[in-house]
Amino acid sequence: PSDGGKLLVVPMVGSHWLSMQKVVEKLSERGHEVVVLMPEVSWQMKTTPGYTVKTYPVSQTLEELDGSL
C-alpha cells in the first residue's frame, strides 16, 4: 500500500503509450488517482477501468492519420 496521489498523464500516440499503459495501470492499482488525456482519434490508445480517460478533439480523422504515415 502507498499514499496515492493524483496524476495527469499525457502520452504520445503510438509505441510510447504501449509501454506507458502498464505503468499507468500499476500506479492506479497502488492507489493513485490517474487521469489520462488522449486525443479522440488514435491508433492504439485503449482504455481500461483502472484509470479515468479524458479526450480532446483533433482535426484529423483516422484515415488522414493513416495516410500521414
TrEMBL record:
Keyword tags: Transferase
TM regions (residue ranges): none
Any one Gene Ontology molecular-function term assigned to this protein's record: UDP-glycosyltransferase activity
Pfam family, one: UDPGT
Protein name: UD18 glucuronosyltransferase
Natural source organism: Thinocorus orbignyianus
